[in-house]
């Protein structure tokens, strides 16, 4: 099972499940945890090959996002978490899409930060370069190169350095396994998510300087029901770090809106 960490207030409080990005781990939520745990139960997982889950999946030759999503759901089953608010950053947003596809009844809301929905021409070129060089070029060269392309500005330096530092723990084999599914399954995961009959309250949060993904997000979001996009100033791809104060305020207000709605519905049912 995936390595996980919990911060529990009480059974009465709603759960937040935080899913990190490629090369990161639960540490990338360090600017959210203290605020989130004041009002919610919080679950953080280290995805396969990442963080303290690094050596747990070495016998798995290939990943799929469906497999990853099911591994996250195993943790929820183990902890007897019936449903939760899911929060993802970058790669974590793709995992969230797949959780919603596989087990929609478990999803109360989705908060998608720096979401990867589709790839622009620059992304596709980078993926092609990565595909050619992934077996012969040291993976940290590729990862660092991608990190600088996605987070090029001086204001991105802190989040970029965090992801590069954590990615050193990933290892080449795990990097290739993840690279392959990102390349093959990202866009299909989003298209499958759009076909779901259930409309989840969904909040997309992006930095105005997230130049690799924001154009597609702006184009796609109006087509999704019960969905809202907020763009943070002076932020890039990793907006939960670069714009943490705004991100925390926005996401907490979003959780509260739908947690309160759920509580009111429950009270009405009991009264009836």
Features:
272 residues; alpha/beta; Rossmann fold; seven-stranded mixed β-sheet; 10 helices; 7 strands; globular
Q: What does this entry look like structurally?
A:
This protein is an alpha/beta fold and 272 residues long. It has one domain (3-271): Rossmann fold (3-Layer(aba) Sandwich). It contains ten helices and seven strands. The protein has helices at 33-36, 65-78, 91-102, 121-133, 139-150, 157-167, 172-194, 214-220, 239-242, 244-271, and strands spanning 3-7, 15-19, 41-46, 84-89, 107-113, 202-207, 227-232. Strand 4, helix 3 and strand 5 form a beta-alpha-beta unit. It is globular, with a radius of gyration of 18 Å. The N and C termini lie far apart (41 Å).
Care to give the gist of this entry?
This protein has 272 residues and is α/β, with parallel strands linked by helices. The chain contains ten helices and seven strands.
């Amino acid at each position: 099972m995936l390595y996980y960490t919990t911060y529990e207030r009480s059974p009465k409080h709603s759960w937040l499940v935080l899913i990190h990005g490629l090369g990161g781990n639960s540490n990338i939520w360090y600017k959210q945890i203290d605020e989130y745990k004041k009002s919610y139960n919080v679950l953080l997982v280290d995805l396969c090959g990442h963080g303290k889950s690094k050596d747990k999946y070495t016998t798995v030759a290939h990943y799929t996002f469906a497999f990853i999503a099911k591994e996250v759901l195993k943790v929820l089953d183990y902890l007897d978490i019936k449903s939760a608010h899911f929060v993802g950053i970058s790669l974590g947003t793709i995992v969230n899409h797949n959780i919603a596809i596989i087990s929609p009844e478990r999803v109360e809301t989705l908060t998608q930060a720096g979401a990867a929905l589709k790839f622009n021409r620059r992304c596709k070129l980078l993926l092609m370069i990565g595909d050619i060089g992934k077996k012969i070029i040291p993976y940290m060269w590729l990862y660092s190169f991608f990190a600088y392309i996605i987070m090029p500005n001086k204001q991105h330096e802190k989040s970029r350095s965090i992801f590069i530092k954590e990615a050193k723990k990933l290892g080449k084999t795990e990097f290739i396994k993840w690279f392959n599914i990102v390349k093959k399954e990202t866009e299909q995961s989003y298209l499958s998510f759009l076909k779901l009959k259930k409309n989840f309250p969904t909040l997309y949060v992006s930095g105005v300087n997230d130049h690799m993904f924001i154009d597609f997000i702006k184009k796609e979001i109006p087509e999704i029901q019960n969905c809202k996009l907020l763009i943070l100033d002076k932020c890039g791809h990793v907006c939960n770090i670069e714009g943490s104060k705004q991100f925390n305020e926005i996401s907490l207000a979003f959780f509260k809106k739908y947690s309160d709605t759920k509580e009111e519905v429950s009270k009405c049912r009991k009264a009836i």
